[in-house]
Amino acid sequence: MHKMLFIMASLVMFLSACSTTPVSQRPAVESRDVPASSPTTESAQTSPVPSQQANPQAMPLPPGESTGTDIPTTKPAPAPTNPAVLALLSDAEKYQQQGNMSAAQSRLQRAQRIAPSDPKVYYQLAKAHYELEDFRLAEQVALKGVSYAKGDNTEQKRFWLLLADIRTKKGDKAGAKAAREQAARY
Prior knowledge:
Elements: H1 2-18, H2 39-44, H3 83-98, H4 101-114, H5 119-131, H6 135-148, H7 153-170, H8 173-184
Helix pairs in contact: 3-4, 4-5, 5-6, 5-7, 6-7, 7-8
């Protein structure tokens, strides 16, 4: 009996020595917005005590700012400065006016690869998908453009009005109404 127990205990110890601890996986591509941290520093960090957290309502506001829920006005997104993007946007606009939406879409996709965060590219690309009656893709591109147009109220309004049109064509009356309400905020 003791011999069997000894063999089982030895086997368990032997097999447990062969196992490895799981290695934490880091993402293949790290975000440039957030600095990477090692697993040891993450476990050493503690969350702040509630009394240490900043209270935004207790902080004084600069003169002329309000505490309401109105949308803050900021500088509009800069116009594309890359000559290739400007040329592609110009070509796409010409093709759209001629009714050649496939050629316009092709130029806009190239412009998107060059300037992936330019809301003007997304707006024209969403319009091209809309004209091609690809409403699902038009809506996705327009929503992506909304995220890149943060701070530019004029662009935000244009995107939300386009989204209202897209959703109307899709038959999504509630979504179209919500998009119009969102556009009215700008």
